[in-house]
Design a protein that fits this description.
This protein has helices spanning 2-26, 36-46, 55-58, 70-104, 109-144, 149-165, 171-197. It is an all-alpha fold. It has one domain. The protein is elongated. The two termini are 25 Å apart. The chain crosses the membrane at residues 7-27, 39-59, 71-88, 124-141, 148-167, 173-190.
C-alpha cells in the first residue's frame, strides 16, 4: 500500500514536467507560416499543463504546518505558485496561441510584439515559481533536514534555466527533465522522512 502511494505521488509530481519535456521536443524551432498552425495548436494543448508544474511544490508540502513559521512560508509558496500559473499561462496564450494564429493568418508584423509581451509575462511567472521553490524548500528543510538538498539544488538550477529556455529543444527540454527529477527527489525525501518517523518504537516529531 505504501509503495503504491509512493508511485502515485511520483506520477503526480513528475507528469507535468515530463509532458512539457515531450512537448518541447516536438515544438517548432521557429515560428513561420509553415509551422504556425502546429505552433498554435501545441500551445492550446499545453494551456492546462503549464499550471500543473506547481504540483511538484504543492504535493510535498501537503498537510498542516508542523512548526512556527511554516504557515507563512507555505502561504508564500502558494502565492508564488499562483503567480506562476497566472503569468506563465499568459505567456502561453500570447506568445504561443496568439502569435501562432496571427502568423498563420498572414499578419506577421504583430508576432514580434506578442513575443515581447509574452516574454515579460513568462519572466514574472518564473520569478514567482522561484519564490515558491525557495519557500517550499525552506519548509522541507525544516521538516526533513539535509536529505532535501539534492532536490533543492537541482530545482534552483532548473528555475534559473527556465527564465529564458521556455521548453525549446535542447535546453528547455532538459530544464523540464530537471524539474521532474528535482520534484521526485524532494517528494522521495519527504516520504522517507515521514516513513522513518512512523517506524515502531521511534518517536514522532511534534
Amino acid at each position: 500500500m505504501r509503495s503504491l502511494r509512493t508511485v502515485r505521488v511520483m506520477v503526480l509530481v513528475t507528469a507535468a514536467p515530463l509532458l512539457l519535456a515531450a512537448a518541447g521536443w516536438m515544438h517548432p524551432r521557429h515560428l513561420t507560416p509553415r509551422t504556425a498552425d502546429h505552433w498554435a495548436q501545441l500551445h492550446v494543448v499545453l494551456l492546462p499543463v503549464f499550471p500543473l508544474l506547481v504540483l511538484g511544490l504543492v504535493v510535498p508540502l501537503w498537510g498542516r504546518p508542523r512548526r512556527d513559521g511554516e504557515g507563512a512560508l507555505t502561504v508564500l509558496s502558494w502565492a508564488g505558485c499562483l503567480c506562476f500559473a497566472a503569468y506563465y499561462s499568459g505567456l502561453d496564450a500570447v506568445a504561443g496561441i496568439s502569435a501562432g494564429v496571427v502568423v498563420d493568418n498572414g499578419v506577421h508584423g504583430a508576432a514580434g510584439r506578442l513575443f515581447v509581451t509574452g516574454d515579460e509575462l513568462g519572466r514574472i511567472g518564473v520569478y514567482g515559481l522561484a519564490v515558491a521553490s525557495l519557500a517550499s524548500c525552506a519548509v522541507l528543510w525544516r521538516r526533513h533536514g539535509v536529505r532535501v538538498l539534492p532536490g533543492a539544488a537541482l530545482l534552483f538550477v532548473a528555475c534559473w534555466s527556465f527564465v529564458d529556455s521556455h521548453i525549446f529543444w535542447p535546453r528547455g527540454v532538459f530544464t523540464m527533465l530537471g524539474f521532474a527529477v528535482a520534484f521526485a527527489l524532494l517528494s522521495a525525501a519527504a516520504h522517507r522522512s515521514a516513513e522513518g518517523a512512523r517506524e515502531p518504537g521511534r518517536p514522532t516529531k511534534p
